[in-house]
Design a protein that fits this description.
alpha+beta, 5-stranded mixed sheet, 4-stranded antiparallel sheet, 18 strands
């Protein structure tokens, strides 16, 4: 469980769900795959989202509900199927459908248009008798099919399915049936999830008030090609020269953040560093003296405070945004 919470996509997804930005994750069923549009929009297209959502459900973070069922080809597992309806007697596809009439007297059966003599009367094309009263002279069992090859009438055609990927033909009961799910936040763990993902909220809200676009648990690509997860990345959309990359380090019992812990943030900064980037390390409650000296030399702001709210108050007073 702890390992999955190190995944930046998971953290961002849970963050948006506890904040109510995403109420439910719905699938989209395509010809060849199952996609999750909200995840594709937020994190990019990936055919592995279903596996991640199932894992989050297994771990208890999400609750899944059956949204629909899909049928796959038993040979190649493709979803790209088409129906093929056949005459059940001769398996021909050459049939028509219509409203059937049965003349009781001579036993002739055919479609209604064959019996029409005028707008108000019906006449049997076989024996020539007029059909006056339904239920006495003739019956009208409803719509049916007629095979034009063997002339058999039937109520339901033989149903086969054809895979458009491999051309395999099969009956529906032979298909692979798969449940497709939608996902919601598991309300029984909401409080636990909020503790994990909302610790950044005072800082994120500060930058939102200043007109910044904010991403929590964002992945930032460095010059090395590596992706680095940062707690808050804020970008001023009206002024691209202002970007803030912020990590929050917190220790209990008044213990200081060590040089080794600060070096992890420094490594991110050095790899990501651009002329527009303003890196900030928030240390709760404080950092070791050597670590603060190091961040100062590298142009990294280090904000020390007893709580994150107090750190935000310091930023409010000192940060020019």
């Amino acid at each position: 469980m702890e390992e999955i919470l190190q995944n930046s996509v998971v953290l961002r997804l849970l963050y948006k769900m506890v904040r109510g930005e995403i109420s439910e994750i719905y699938p989209r069923i395509g010809y060849e795959d199952i996609s999750y549009p909200v995840l594709n929009r937020l994190f990019g297209s990936d055919n592995q989202w279903g596996q991640l959502l199932d894992k989050l459900s297994f771990e208890g973070f999400l609750v899944k509900h059956v949204y629909d069922k899909v049928f796959r080809c038993p040979k190649c597992h493709s979803l790209n199927l088409r129906p093929k309806l056949l005459c059940p007697k001769c398996r021909s596809s050459n049939y028509v459908q219509g409203n059937v009439i049965v003349h009781y007297s001579c036993g002739y059966v055919d479609f209604e248009e064959k019996f029409i003599e005028s707008e108000t009367s019906l006449k049997c094309p076989k024996c020539g008798k007029s059909l006056k009263q339904i239920g006495i002279d003739y019956g009208n069992p409803g719509f049916a099919f007629k095979c034009l090859d063997c002339e058999e009438f039937f109520n339901l055609p033989l149903e086969l399915w054809v895979c458009k990927s491999c051309e395999h033909q099969f009956q529906l009961h032979q298909a692979i049936v798969e449940n497709i799910y939608s996902y919601r936040l598991n309300e029984t763990v909401r409080e636990k999830v909020e503790k994990v993902v909302l610790y950044t909220e005072p800082l994120a809200e500060f930058f939102r008030r200043k007109g910044f676009h904010v991403e929590c648990f964002s992945e930032v690509k460095g010059k090395s090609g590596n992706l680095h997860m940062v707690d808050v990345f804020a970008r001023n959309l009206s002024n691209s020269t202002k970007e803030f990359m912020i990590d929050i380090e917190e220790k209990e019992n008044q213990q200081p953040i060590t040089v080794e812990e600060v070096l992890k943030f420094i490594a991110k900064v050095l790899d990501v560093k651009t002329k527009n980037l303003h890196p900030i390390l928030i240390a709760i409650p404080k950092v070791e003296k050597e670590a603060k000296t190091l961040t100062s030399k590298l142009g990294i702001d280090c904000v020390e405070a007893e709580t994150l709210d107090l750190a935000v108050d310091k930023l409010e007073k000192t940060l020019k945004v």
